[in-house]
Amino acid sequence: MTHQPNHEFAPAGAGNHPIRWGILGTGGITYKLLAGAATTATAEIVAVGSRTPERAAIYAAETGIERAHGSYEALLADPGVDAVYISLPNNLHHRWTMAALAAGKHVLCEKPYTFLPAEVDAAFDAADAAGLILSEAFMWRHHPQAVALQALLPAIGQLQLIRATFGYVLDNSLDVRLRADLEGGALGDVGCYPISGARLLAGEDPDEVMGYATMGPTGVDLRFSGLLHFSSGVIAEFGASFTYSHRGIEAIGSAGSLFAPDPWQSNPAAVWHDGVETRYDGFDPYGLELADMAAAIHGQRPQRLGRADALGQARTIEALLRSARTGRPVRL
User: φ and ψ at 300, to 5 degrees?
Assistant: First the structure.
């Protein structure tokens, strides 16, 4: 069975001008955002900022972006940019989000926004004070597949167990994800997705966590496994890895189960229930993410992912890291 696109996930912001976006950083993820922007009339990518004029110029020429800035500060000073997408290494997310907000720009920041809950509050306080929109870029949450997983939960009875994984083999020893000084590691890179999924299906933040890290020679976790306990009694088991390839999420209830083989990248965009597969093809999660930002910026509706979700993520990740260091469960 195939679910066809409908108005619920159509581009928002009709009747308003497209949001003019600047890309801060030129990492590989930005190309996916560019492809998503091409699917929605609500976004226009007009500028890019990099650490050097040369890199910015090369990227702009490759992608057809009209303005290239040779520093992050120059991008933020561009009066023709309404909002910025931050795709920098993890340790730079909060610093440049705060700089962008101070420059009067709306911000979509790549996940994980931070490992520190206090930084989430500081950023959203700054955004609220300036009347700006800030969101953590969990594009998968904007896909109708994620909405379907939530909507189908009552059909499986009382939710009891969640299993979620996201792993791939990272064989480049020079990859920034392996650098401790940039806050790399499997938990931050891919583990945040299963955590997001478990919190979504449980409908709350965990009240106790246990984390287990397998550390690599560069000082970051190559594998991270964890348990999340929720006040409802639901338990979530999750795994994140740079050494094995596996992904998916399963919700097990008293009367059945749901399974999505790849909710994080929607490939395939499918949900299994009672032996029946329903496909959710024809949607670009990055385009939907940008449309959601546009709707919030234009005042049509609140952004799907705001302070509460980012704070729940940061609190959970911080507690898991603390648990892995101490070898003990951590109450939240």
Answer: -80, -35
Tell me which H or E stretch contains 288: helix 285-297
List the beta strands (DSSP E) in 78-201: 83-86, 106-110, 134-137, 159-167
Query: Chain centroid to CA 141: how far?
Result: 8
Q: How many alpha carbons fall within 13 Å on the CB side of residue 62?
A: 12
Structure confidence by residue, pLDDT tens digits, 218-229: 999 999 999 999
Q: Which residues of 97-122 are buried (b: 16+ CB within 10 A; e: fewer)?
A: bbbbbebebbbbbbbbbbbebebbeb
Active site residue 32: no
Q: How many CB atoms lie within 10 A of CB 257?
A: 18
C-alpha R_g of the chain:
19
Burial class of 209 by CB neighbour count within 10 A (0 to 12, 13 to 18, 19+):
buried
Among the listed residues 3, 93, 111, 247, the single catalytic one is: 111
Average confidence (pLDDT) over 17-23: 97
Q: At what angle do helices 93-102 and 117-130 cross, to 10 degrees?
A: 10
The CA–CA distances, whole Å, from 244 to 101, 176, 239, 266 equal 38, 18, 10, 19
